[in-house]
Write a structure and sequence with these properties.
By secondary structure, the chain is mostly helical. The protein has helices at 11-20, 26-48, 52-64, 78-93, 97-109, 116-135, 140-157, 161-188, 194-216, 221-229, 239-250, 254-268, 278-282, 284-301, 306-318, 324-331, 339-358, 362-371, 373-379, 382-406, 410-423, 427-439, 443-454, 463-479, 483-502, 507-524, 527-541, 545-562, 565-577, 582-598, 605-610, 620-628, 634-640, 644-660, 666-674, 682-691.
């Protein structure tokens, strides 16, 4: 059966069809092959994003869809082959011989026997097998234990009867040896060596559960029970495991498979006197595989069971198949959904999107969000929204809006931000929407969002966000030549900033109050007062390195705009002395470097230290540092940018470099940055500040300027 061509748009629905249907019909097997192929493509994307652990989890997710006898080399296309290569490197680096060897065998099956890659891979496997033979040594118990710890993980990803049977035979022999040693000690007083005794104890304690997990991973409780009852393992099988397997074999309903899942979950829980925990004894990966197999079978028995749907969805997220979670959850909602379950479903979707966003897999976030449409529609029902679910669903939409905004797709982000602001109104939510409207060139809509921000329920306590709103209103009116309106907005920003300064709070609150006050003073042309406010912000931040890093960035950015070389240098020096994070110090060093070039000041040790590179040399901030040190050309920096935000940053820095060199055309380049379709990167605001039209107004004499 040829693989069905499964695309991204229909992946989630196709995945859940495969999950629901456990048959071996030709139609289902063709769809299964297509789903596995597409999942391996998704896995490869995570390796491209330099997230090898998550990429490997996605490869395992693809393979966990297969049960004994369902694997076929046609499931692996060129992208899938590269994903296997990435997983082989990751698992091999962790010393996971069993799964590494299984993946190598799969990879070899995709290559022609005479291909150079196949020859090299065969040699690698031969060396691995030789190494395994040499290291599986010691007493009989130690050799058998080592064999089990190799063969069992291999069988988790190698969906073949041969692999399963080999692992089962190894467990049986290992436990048999353990029982033999235990009997010899109890009946004859024959004390084993320490290593042999530890292996015996471990085999007796975990062998039955391991063998059960071996087959339950493939949804075969009957075969697990038969293996246990037909060997000496019956002597060490706990009653709960036997009852759970019997129920799953004889009754086979959703409750029986739930009970089996609970048995494995309990085995993973640590005892009070057990420092390592059950999952460490049994193997966390093996427990997860058994939970996957039992939950999948429970789901197939009753896809409308909300509890099973929730647990299975969490496993899908862990295995890099987040887009399947909303479809599984939506299928359990029914025509009259329960508000509690809708809220739980929204939470699972939120966490799934957040996990994928953390690795930069924005396409996966979009797929999950699209699949969640029925859940969000249920959350929008008045009777469900009023139960507090609207807050959780607003968080889901906010995550998607943030992803779209970072990708420069503000037109798609705006309706999501708007829905979030209406569903869960706050000053911060309306200010963010105002930023979107401003970048979209809709000043009227931005000012309306600012008006909404000022009247939000939290306006009396969210003073920093209110000050941000007033400053944005000032800039919008100033840029439009509306002098009177600009003065009014600036006066309102000043009043809020002074009120903030009088309040007491933690280091972050005090530092933000001072930096906002400094921005207001700069708008009034009061450079000295602004410098003093930023100095106070730095002093307030000294006790918290993360807050200090953010304050250094704000201060050095302000120095770049105001051409305050001494102020920028002093702030960066404080950051270096406190060892702020590399990203913070490199950006601050980059801005100081540009300021030194503009003012014709020589590059000194402060800038050199700030731009020093450590750690991951493929990261974007390291590329910026490399460019600043003259080791990368402007064209190379622009080519290295991998997303919209990075491209805008590259345009900003190359434009600023040309500006320092006296190029008269740089204002046009900076204006493109200022109007770019991204928010939440400081370079856009820097470009706006550098291009701001002149504005003159005096600081009100009645202003209560506080200098703590």
């Amino acid at each position: 059966m040829r693989p069905v061509d499964v695309g991204d748009n229909d992946f989630a629905a196709s995945l859940v069809r495969v999950l629901r249907d456990g048959s071996r019909s030709p139609e289902r097997l063709g769809l299964l092959k297509g789903v596995v192929r597409r999942q391996l493509v998704h896995a490869q994307q995570r390796f491209v994003l330099v997230h090898a652990e998550e990429g490997t989890a996605s490869v395992l997710g693809a393979l966990y869809l297969l049960r004994a006898g369902e694997g076929h080399s046609s499931m692996i296309d060129p992208q899938g082959a590269r994903a296997l290569d990435g997983a082989i490197r990751f698992l091999g680096g962790r010393g996971d011989e069993g799964r590494t060897h299984a993946l190598m065998r799969m990879r070899a099956a995709t290559l022609d026997e005479k291909a150079p890659e196949r020859v090299a891979l065969d040699e690698h496997m031969t060396n691995l097998e030789r190494w395994l033979a040499e290291t599986h040594s010691g007493t009989a118990g130690e050799r058998l234990g080592a064999e089990v710890r190799y063969l069992v993980p291999r069988s988790m990803v190698d969906a073949s009867d041969e692999s399963l049977d080999a692992a089962a035979e190894a467990i049986t022999a290992w436990v048999g040896r353990g029982i033999e040693i235990d009997r010899a000690f109890r009946q004859l007083g024959r004390r084993p060596t320490r290593a042999e005794g530890m292996e015996a104890a471990r085999s007796i304690e975990t062998g039955a559960m391991m063998l059960a997990a071996l087959y339950v991973r493939h949804g075969d409780a009957a075969r697990a029970l038969g293996r246990l009852e037909g060997s000496d393992l019956r002597l060490v099988t706990e009653g709960q495991l036997r009852r759970a397997l019997t129920a799953a074999t004889e009754d086979g309903d959703v409750r029986a498979w739930e009970m089996l899942a609970a048995t494995f979950a309990h085995a993973a829980a640590p005892d009070e006197d057990d420092e390592d925990g059950g999952s460490e004894r049994l193997g966390a990966d093996l427990v997860e595989a058994a939970l996957w197999g039992s939950l999948l079978e429970a789901y197939r028995k009753d896809p409308t069971n909300m509890r099973v749907a929730a647990f299975l969805s969490e496993r899908l997220v862990r295995l890099g198949m987040s887009e399947g979670a909303p479809v599984v959850l939506a299928g359990a909602l029914g025509s009259a959904p329960n508000s509690g379950f809708v809220g739980e479903a929204c939470t699972v979707v939120f966490e799934a999107m957040a996990v994928d966003a953390d690795v930069g897999d924005h396409d996966a976030v979009r797929r999950t969000f699209r699949a969640a449409a029925p859940i969000l529609a249920a959350a929008d029902r008045p009777e469900i929204a009023q139960a507090g679910v609207d807050i959780v669903s607003a968080r889901v939409r906010h995550v998607m809006a943030t992803i779209e905004a970072r990708a420069g797709n503000l037109a798609a982000a705006r309706p999501l931000f708007l829905a979030g602001a209406k569903g869960n109104p706050s000053v911060a939510a309306w200010v963010r929407l105002a930023r979107v409207d401003r970048q979209l060139g809709n000043s009227a809509a931005a000012l309306e969002s600012i008006r909404q921000a000022r009247t939000s329920p939290d306006a009396r306590v969210s003073l920093a966000d209110v000050c941000e709103a007033n400053l944005m209103a000032f800039e919008l009116h100033r840029d439009a030549g509306e002098q009177a309106e600009a003065r009014t907005a600036l006066q309102e920003a000043l009043a809020v900033a002074i009120a903030m300064q009088k309040q007491r709070g933690d280091a972050g609150t005090r530092a933000r109050a001072e930096t906002l006050l400094g921005r207001v003073y700069d708008a009034y042309g009061e450079a000295k007062l602004s410098r003093q406010a930023h100095d106070r912000a730095l002093s307030a931040s000294l006790a918290d390195r993360d807050v200090l890093g953010a304050t250094v960035l704000q201060t050095v950015a302000r120095a770049l705009v105001q051409r305050d070389l001494d102020g920028g240098k002093a702030a960066l020096q404080q950051g270096l002395d406190a060892e702020i994070d590399q990203e913070d110090r490199i950006y601050a060093g980059l801005w100081l470097h540009l300021l030194q070039r503009q003012t014709r000041a020589p590059t000194d040790d402060t800038t050199t230290r700030a731009l020093a590179i450590t750690g991951n040399r493929d990261s974007w901030v390291v590329k910026l540092a490399t460019w600043a040190m003259g080791k990368m050309t402007d064209d190379a920096l622009i080519a290295a940018a991998q997303n919209t935000a990075q491209k805008v940053e590259a345009e900003f820095y190359t434009a600023m470099s040309r500006r320092a060199g006296g190029d008269p055309a740089t204002d046009t380049l900076l204006r493109r940055v200022a109007n770019s379709p991204v928010i939440d990167i400081i370079e856009v605001q820097l470009a706006k500040d550098l291009l701001a039209p002149p504005f003159r107004t005096s600081l009100p004499p009645s202003a209560n300027v506080v200098s703590p």
